Amino acid sequence: MEIRDTAAVISGAGSGIGRATALALASRGARIIVADINEAGGNETVDMIGAAGGIAVFRKVDVTHTEDLAAMLACSVEHFGQLDIVYNNAGIGGEDLFADDPGDWAKMIDINLTAVIDATRIAVRELRRLNRPGVVINTASMGGLLPMPGSPIYAATKAGVVNFTRSLAYLAPESRIRVNAICPSYTDTPLVRRSGDERVEAMKLQVGGILQPEDIAAGVVELVEDDSRAGAIMRVTVRGGRDFARDIRP
Ligand SMILES: NC(=O)c1ccc[n+]([C@@H]2O[C@H](COP(=O)([O-])OP(=O)(O)OC[C@H]3O[C@@H](n4cnc5c(N)ncnc54)[C@H](O)[C@@H]3O)[C@@H](O)[C@H]2O)c1
């Protein structure tokens, strides 16, 4: 899909990877709905896009609320008259499963997995209703392909996103809707920085460095532009750059 003159909705666009992707798509001529629960961050992204000569609108959403997701997608049609790209990217990290108080770990499943399924479901229905081709991209993680001993719930949510996405490859020939996922390795964003400098240094040692949000944005741009990708699982790593996880055939 050519990005120029498209309309894109990006969740979690008020920070990190979502913001970098919003800027990358806007710089190629997409108009952006910046969707986030964080109003200040979202408005900052809108201002950054505007300052660079692009067009963006902020929409406050909690991705765990179905009605917010529907309103976020409708917002694109209302403002831009169309919907072409949906990037389900909002997510959280940080868990301590075996602590005395393990916290609300179900919330991580709600945000990282359930909301991605729900947003994809609504987006596909909307794109079908509009009778338009579309691209849905979901942010998974290398943690969805490999074990994460410190973050088993996070890993489970991202593995869920990976196989959910793979299972939707059939939509491309049927409805001209391509659903793909991107699996970043550690990326320098507030999500990772919150785990502390020591942990960040350990991550760098483990995987050979840390990615920048723009590296992931470049992957999303590729997944939008390459019409051959459907149900594809793109990995982005320091050592391997961008490549695709292969399906294992039974
Ligand atoms: N940073 C990494 O190393 C890394 C690696 C692999 C995958 N990821 C994934 O990338 C995605 C983006 O993460 P990031 O690193 O840019 O983190 P980030 O914290 O910088 O950005 C996440 C954004 O999601 C928003 N958000 C959180 N909960 C929300 C909710 N309920 N409704 C709406 N918005 C909500 C936050 O407000 C924030 O703006 C996440 O899905 C994350 O799991 C990150």
Summarize the structure.
The chain is built from 9 helices and 8 strands.
What descriptive keywords fit this protein?
single chain, 250 residues, Rossmann fold, 46% helix, binds nicotinamide-adenine-dinucleotide
Task: Describe the protein in words.
With about 250 residues, the chain is of the alpha/beta class. The chain has one domain: Rossmann fold (3-Layer(aba) Sandwich). The chain has 9 helices and 8 strands. It has helices spanning about 15-25, 40-50, 65-80, 105-130, 150-165, 170-175, 190-195, 195-205, 215-225, and strands at about 5-10, 30-35, 55-60, 85-90, 135-140, 175-185, 235, 240-245. An 8-stranded mixed sheet has the order 3-2-1-4-5-6-7-8, sandwiched between helices. Helix 4 (about 105-130) packs parallel to helix 5. The longest helix is centred in the middle third of the chain and has 26 residues, at about 105-130. The protein is globular. The two termini are about 30 Å apart. About 45% of the residues are buried. The mean pLDDT is about 95. It binds nicotinamide-adenine-dinucleotide. The site of nicotinamide-adenine-dinucleotide (NAD) has 30 residues, from helix 1 and helix 7. Nicotinamide-adenine-dinucleotide binds next to helix 1 and helix 7.
